[in-house]
Amino acid sequence: MANSSRSLADDIRGRSDAELIDLVLARPDLARPAPADLTSLAARAGTRASVQRAVEALDRGHLQVLEAVVVAGDAARRGALLDLLGTKDAVTVETILQDLWRSALLWRGADGDHVVRTVPEVLGSSVAGLGAPMRELRPSSPPEQADADHIRATLDEAPDEARAMLQRMTWGPAFGVLPTSGPGHTTARWLLEHHLLVPVSVDRVALPREVGLVLREGRLHRSLALTPPEITARHVSLVDAAAGGAASESLTHVDELAAAWGAAPPRVLRAGGLSVRDLRVTQQSLDLDPEHTAFVVELAYAAGLVADDGEVEPVWAPTSELDEWSSSEGGHRWAALATAWLASTRAPHLVGRRSTGTGPANALGPDVQWPAIRAIRREVLRELSSLEPGSAADHASLRERLAWRRPNRSAAVLDEAVEAVLRECEWLGVTGRGALSDAGRALVASPGSLDDVAAAMSAHLPSPVDHILVQADLTAVAPGPLVGGLGSFMRLAADVESRGGATVYRFTPESVRRALDAGWTAADFVDTVRRSSRTPLPQPLEYLVSDVARKHGQTRIGGAAAYIRSDDESVLDTMLASRDLAPLRLRRLASTVLVSSADPRVLVELLRDNGFAPVHESQDGTVVHAETPRRRAGSRRRGPGPMVAPVDRDYTQSLVDGLRAAEATADQRRAEDEGRPGPRIQAMDPVVTLSLLRDAVAERHGVWIGYSDGHGSTSRHLIHPQRVEGGRVRATDEAGHEKSFSVHRITGATLET
């Protein structure tokens, strides 16, 4: 263990500056925090946590070669490695080995390549589906039991049932349950007696690695995949036009969401998130399917346009940032949404799925948080950007390629996430008809540049139109997104009937009354529609507006507690006779006046529900126009964020320069240490120091340590550790005195020889 650590350190110290830069760029975690010198860098590169990150980032080809090096053993010949992999492509294998060395998962000694000590631990005992070696499963077994020729000879004598049992374990898993009775028990006993299986517990058996390799005929993997699979693609046309249309719809959906939540904000659940009922109401308002609605809600949240208002009874409401966003040019509005989506760690496709809690995950809730989705989005877009412009990827081949890129991910989870990302790309307009749009390519190339992304999309967004086409059936068609004032009027005066490239609105008595309540007169209403329409105004619409306007305000409500007055006495008679209005306890004060103890707003709502058309008037008799309330949540605080320099080439170059200077100082210190008694003590990472001290406690070994005092000077001590706890090590020194040492002051350690 110690020898391999020293050899890795020697390998890293012997690298050129360019090779050290490549190492840090391949494994950025080695630079945070900056190591003291090259020895510390090597110690950190050999820790389990860092190696696990590096191994998890490997694609299938690099992982298969690394597994082959582990199985072949240290300093294995290239021929043996190629035989294990079952390939003659020495060039590709050599290139991959160079990559593994560059990222310090391998180190090179005089006798050949060696894996870093912690790599087999990270890969686990079942490398490539093989079991552990015979010497680990049964340390007392004679060497011939692991000999390939001996195993082949035993297999030739095996009964057919025994061979069938072994075949089921050949490609993994290499563990099985021992049958307790019947023919299976007899077969398993024969395999155990001939050492083709090894018991690992009372009822479980393992297939030794050597036996598995013989059964696989010397090949480590059933199918070799050293290079990525190709993506099947087809050429499509009108990509940017389709993407622009989808982007325009996304902007409209966010506008409508903000308008709906500004008027009637849904409450925040106690556990956080949006209730299923409120999501369904939002779905009906936007006229989308549930998955698309959840995406729009999460998109607006990621962009900071809606948030928890933080009140005593919190609700989800638009933020003050919405006003600035709404007034921006269309391309910039879309760029803000797209960059927020790309950087978000929330996965809208998880909404409604069973979560770790007691029920399904709620939109805007904590169960939708999944940091891995951000990397998957970037990988999907990176693969799409590698295709020719106008090429739409086949989803199955794209999933297969991404599975090759990240073999350690669950295939089912990855497939589901990739499909969700592709679906969201179409909804948002990052892709059009399955192919990456120009704006999508700008998003991949410059995810942090809003101006570049906005410019790429602006050219393809449908131009706003300033007219509608009113039809005789009381509908109006908007052939594109409406300009601001006309769009606001149509959302107020008509109901959306269908969306798409053109939006269809329908005028209804309720929508006309809504406009009159907001202060529009019948004449202004008709004049606005006539001026905006490219078609003649149909008479049915004029009749509708006139009829609603004639009834509108016939009955007026005000408050002493509340009163109702009307010039039409028969209307008041009808109200008094209505059973549905009995809870209001109406009482006539005069032939044209009724009073009630109910709130005026309650009176307006109940009377409208029962077929009347009252208006609310103030104390001086003027009409109180209904205004859509504008609820705003406080903006989410967006501080400057932590000032961390990126691990890029410039930063890495300065880091390597510092490590070289520190290494020169360390060389001088090591030269001084040579004259001191005891072995040379190398500086090492505290994690490695702790591991060595714990091993020394378990094995009752003496340890030489370097110990820094409060003045910065370092002394050497030979100690016998007794226990390590609470950041301190209790030990006896050379004189037999018990002392306590702070682990953070120990600069390095080495076992006593």
Structural class: alpha+beta
Instruction: Tally the beta strands.
Output: 25
The dominant shape is elongated
- Straight-line N-to-C gap: 14 Å
Helix proportion: 40-55%
Biggest sheet descriptor? 5 strands, mixed
Oligomer status: single chain
Cα radius of gyration in angstroms: 37 Å
Poorly predicted ranges:
1-5, 639-643
- Which strand-content bin applies to the residues? 5-15%
Helical segment count? 31
Mean pLDDT: 86
**Strand numbers in spatial order across the main sheet:** 18-19-17-16-20
GO molecular function: helicase activity
Keywords: ATP-binding, Helicase, Hydrolase, Nucleotide-binding
InterPro entries: XPB/Ssl2_N
Protein name: Helicase-associated domain-containing protein
Outline of the structure:
The protein is of the alpha+beta class. It is 47% helix and 13% strand. A hairpin with a 4-residue loop joins strand 14 and strand 15 (503-506).
Could you explain how this protein is built, in words?
It is elongated, with a radius of gyration of 37 Å. It has 31 helices and 25 strands. Helix 5 packs across helix 7 (90-102), helix 18 (330-343) packs across helix 23 (450-458) and helix 19 (372-385) packs across helix 21. A hairpin with a 4-residue loop joins strand 14 (495-498) and strand 15 (503-506). The longest helix has 26 residues, at 649-674. The model is unreliable at 1-5 and 639-643 (pLDDT under 50). It has 753 residues and is α+β, with helices and mostly antiparallel strands. Helix content is 47%, strand content 13%. GO terms for molecular function: helicase activity. This is Helicase-associated domain-containing protein.
